[in-house]
Amino acid sequence: MSRDGGRKAPVPLFLTMMGVMEAFAGPVRHVYIHVPFCTARCDYCDFEAEPVGAAGPAEPAVAALFERYVAAVGAEWERERAACDVRRVASLYLGGGTPALLGPARLERIVAGFDGHLTPRAEMTVETNPDEADAAFAAWAATRGVRVSLGVQSFDPMLRAALGRRPAADPAAATRRLRTAGVRDLSIDLMHGIPGQTTSDLDADLGMVDDLAPDHVSWYELDVSAGTPLARRLRGGHGPRPPARAGEDERAAQHRHVVSGLECRGYRWYEVSNFARPGRQARHNVAYWRARPYLGLGPGAVSTVGRRRWRNAPGAAAYGEALAADRLPHRHVETLDATTLARERLMLAARCGLAVPIDEVAAAIDAAALAPLGAAGLLSLHSGTIRVTRKGRYVANEVCVRLFRA
Ligand code: SF4
Known about the structure:
Helix content: 25-40%
CATH class of the largest domain: Alpha Beta
Number of strands: 17
Bound molecules: iron/sulfur cluster
Number of helices: 15
Mean pLDDT: 91
Distance between the termini: 29 Å
Structural class: alpha/beta
Strand content: 15-25%
Radius of gyration: 21 Å
CATH architecture of the largest domain: 2-Layer Sandwich
């Protein structure tokens, strides 16, 4: 699952409570496929992304890498299907990277490997950047009934340039092209906290949401990770120095502005960074936030099934070679202890405002923190459950840090 998660307002009843004993337990119904390829690395990117150059698969070596990758994903899926308790898959998510860079024929080969293993109403999502959302991709996505997640970040080209964002195509034109082709479920990614971004810039992006009417919006705060070119430029290192970035309080105010702006446009805030028209929540991410077991396929992908979590080593070439030789890719495997499970369950629930029974997470929390957090309006205690309030959701991570037993 790409980036930080996030969604919101009236939380559906089926989401309202889940015990930690159930976390990541049961059959697997959710599959994430990591497609690590991008044409070039954006200046703020610290994801598992492998730049392949502007020519993409028109370059024979890149086309060969893509072919090996597609075959390897199919092989890993078959191996995991045999090894894990995989039932009908309710959600399949191709994230990256830029999955659409593979092109419709390779995407179809990946997705076809799941035919016969999906529920009738399974959600299938493919991420793309505007550059790759061409007519051929749009036609394939519409025909396949794929939910498309489009990486926009900002409709303002100056702000995209401040981010060092590589995709050059007009994101509004790409959105319209997807709609015209018949894509019925469309999500866009936007950001606040971009260097130089003002409240009027946020209003301009909210205006584009009005114009384009996506079904779902993921609106994240820019995370400037140490070691990225953007972090170096902000410190005055090599390259054009971007405009100053808003401070922490101002970025928190930007988040509140985004939440109220989207809510008054009819989007429900159902996770810290995610908003949806009624009935259009991303079911794949909801499953993740409910701590359902999931398989991750591809280089760098993470899986969590029961108490076992494993992460494939990054690197598409080594991944393809291993599976071509009928071996699993190199993996880091860990066993999650009860405290880790409880903490993760609480953190995921906090982001969505879900209630968690106190007695099932008692070992992970500091009981003395409950009353002050409740008095501050950040936490509600009701019928033996704790729930992070709407006020607390703005600072969900801080609430959890205060809640956790040292
Ligand atoms: S498109 Fe996304 S994954 Fe690719 S380099 Fe840019 S930020 Fe990273």
